[in-house]
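User: My collaborator sent over this chain with a note saying "see what the structure looks like." That's all I know about it. Can you take a look?
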Amino acid sequence: MPLNFKRTRDLLYDFQFQELFIEELGWNQPSTKKAVSLEIEEKRYQY
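Assistant: Without extra context I'll predict from the sequence alone. Here is the result:
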């Protein structure tokens, strides 16, 4: 489904981020909230 630019712009303008990300962009909450560890150049990060 193509992105509706007018609706996206309106949601951004109104700071309706939850509606923007979930309904317009199709992003959902992650199925797990467990942190994932990642090591880059001997530094450990969690996301």
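A starting point for your reply to your collaborator: The longest helix spans residues 5-13.
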